[in-house]
Amino acid sequence: MSFVRNAWYVAGWSREFGEALVPLTICAQNLVVFRASDGAITALEDRCPHRLLPLSHGKRIGDTIQCGYHGMTFGTDGKCVRVPGQSNLPASAYVDAYPVLERHGIVWIWMGEADKADPALAFDMPEFSDPDWHIHHGDQLHIRANYLNVAENLVDPAHVSFVHPTTLGNAASENVPVHVKTSGEAIVAWRWIRDAEPIGFFKKFGGFAGNVDRWHYYYLHLPSTAVIDFGSADAALALPEEERDKGVRIFALHFVTPVEEGYTIDHWMHLRNTAVGDEAASEQMDAMFRIAFAEDKAILEAIHQEEQRPQKRKPIRIAIDKGPNVYRKRIRELIEGEATDDLGEAEMPVFVQHD
């Protein structure tokens, strides 16, 4: 399985979790999620240790879940609190409980070793807490493709001209060089298109009629969170890169959650520095995003289908693949690092290496 497990993955928006038992799958692990009476969200392994019936097929009793087969009951910590017909509770009668973090209306679940679940590792950005920025939670895009393909598509400005010609791109950017930086925590790809016709998105939302300067900055944070900083400004302003806030600037956030090897959910939302508090504007933007993201979905699912077929030759790589290539390498290193335990240097080594 090509999953990084020691990471926070988005399960959904806060509004999606209440008293009801919600089954979901992350990294091929089935979970059952609900909000306890104190408001905290609980995520448990969705499999009773007795006959393996998913607990989501049972029922909630207070802050416990009763299995729908023989009534074994589990608390929010995963421990069994009742076995009908007997007074003793076997030590093996438990389900795994997963660390949960809820912040900015987003619910994260840590899928790896619980003692490594540091909230500081979950993605955050200053604009979430800035009243000059509007936060809007969007939808879930269900994609029948591997999450690595989905994520690397989100660090690829070059595809926008061809996949989204009427929404997020146009022909003006086809031959504009893409810059890539891979030395930092995030992989970054970006480009500016100067003094060009505005794309369809900003014709509708930004109201631009004449030529604009527009930008795309793609940030990919491991394992699979992407931030696309894009916007436009009147070309006459000739904005330098560091003054993008003077234009219409939007952060499109994609929290890419692997469900299984061939199934991914992209939880998308946006932050913007204009039309703050205007929900009609949010709905207008959602409609345009849905069109664009459906275009991505069609491409990615077609690629995934072809990847399952026999290959007569190796796929080629071209100049624009620098960011995706580095991304794949880093993911492999993380997965390999989780596959073994490093015990450190031995105090009394019996093996001494000299080269």
UniProtKB/TrEMBL annotation:
Keywords: 2Fe-2S, Iron, Iron-sulfur, Metal-binding, Oxidoreductase. It comes from the Bacteria. This is Rieske 2Fe-2S domain-containing protein. PANTHER family: 3-KETOSTEROID-9-ALPHA-MONOOXYGENASE, OXYGENASE COMPONENT, IRON-SULFUR DOMAIN CONTAINING PROTEIN. The keyword Iron applies. CDD domains: RHO_alpha_C_DMO-like (cd08878). Residues 8-109 form the Rieske domain. Pfam families: Rieske, VanA_C. It comes from Sulfitobacter aestuarii.
